[in-house]
User: Which sequence fits this backbone?
């Protein structure tokens, strides 16, 4: 289709060589629209400031051009990043810098920093985070997910409930294929909170279909408050659970967190809570859940 925008065509470089000062002036008047046409929005918006700064630094033409391009590249990269973060649908912002490793001695900081390089995402490996409530599983999922986004990988965050609810609905409505395809697309799929709530009887089989599809293609980062030995109970089917674990664990890194809830720790510090009798190193993991305050933050 022909372009409908009314714009003076820019002269060819050969034409430019013969351009009169008046032509150059006309080009300057067209600069704004040419920058729009080339989608160089950052240069267009900051042009005066950038040119003044380039003049102040006495940059030559090549340097000035590089300076302008750098402004555009930075702005485009920031936009890409913020868009990818939105698409990932993280529930909140958490970072590795904001994670207190001292508060959770069962976690090896070196292992988490190694995971933060995202080599496992590049390889299509999986990460399984296990531990009782409040020990920072979701925090680490979001932080690692953000690292993956920053490295240019597509990421989607979901909860086990949301994911399986969607697949069950897809099966009922005849849209399972589309939904499986949707959850297979991101290079990294983060599945939070497996095992907290009972699943529907067919959920295990649907989950297996998704994990099979993603197997050795894209990574899964999954967290659970239940040790993997109890996943047959989680899925209500020993055979399906074994098949899921077989694929999930084949190329995987398992991080088991043993310790107290960070939230309760904060409350204990504030004197709102007494420590549990006899310690709670494994509280909640497949056993008795840790004491819950009346209302958690
Ligand atoms: P889980 O998913 O294991 O239940 P969360 O990741 O939701 O736990 O952690 C609960 C809250 O405590 C979150 O706000 C999280 O950022 C914070 N938190 C947990 N562990 C740490 C930690 N080691 N350092 C800093 N904040 C933490
Ligand atoms: Mg959580």
Assistant:
């Amino acid at each position: 289709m022909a372009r409908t925008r009314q714009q003076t065509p820019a002269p060819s470089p050969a034409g430019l060589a013969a351009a009169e000062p008046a032509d150059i002036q006309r080009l300057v008047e067209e600069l704004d629209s040419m920058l729009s046409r080339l989608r160089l929005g950052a240069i267009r918006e900051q042009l005066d400031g950038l040119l003044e700064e380039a003049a102040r630094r006495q940059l030559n033409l090549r340097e000035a051009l590089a300076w302008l391009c750098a402004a555009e590249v930075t702005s485009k990269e920031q936009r890409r990043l913020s868009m990818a973060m939105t698409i990932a649908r993280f529930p909140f912002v958490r970072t590795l810098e904001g994670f207190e490793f001292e508060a959770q001695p069962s976690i090896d900081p070196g292992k988490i920093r190694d995971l933060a390089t995202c080599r496992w995402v590049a390889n299509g490996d999986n990460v399984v985070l296990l531990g009782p409530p409040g020990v920072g599983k979701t925090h680490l999922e979001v932080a690692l997910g953000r690292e993956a986004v920053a490295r240019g990988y597509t990421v989607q965050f979901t909860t086990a409930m949301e994911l399986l609810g969607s697949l069950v609905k897809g099966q009922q409505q005849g849209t399972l294929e589309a939904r499986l395809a949707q959850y297979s697309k991101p290079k990294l799929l983060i599945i939070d909170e497996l095992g907290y709530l009972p699943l529907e009887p067919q959920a295990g089989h649907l989950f297996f279909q998704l994990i099979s599809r993603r197997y050795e293609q894209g990574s899964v980062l999954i967290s659970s408050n239940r040790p993997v030995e109890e996943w047959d109970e989680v899925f209500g089917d020993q055979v399906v659970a074994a098949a899921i674990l077989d694929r999930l664990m084949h190329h995987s890194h398992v991080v088991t967190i043993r310790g107290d809830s960070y939230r309760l720790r904060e409350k204990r510090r504030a004197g709102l809570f007494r420590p549990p009798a006899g310690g709670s190193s494994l509280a909640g993991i497949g056993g008795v859940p840790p004491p819950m305050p009346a209302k958690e933050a």
User: Anything to note?
Assistant: The chain has 13 helices and five strands. The radius of gyration is 27 Å.
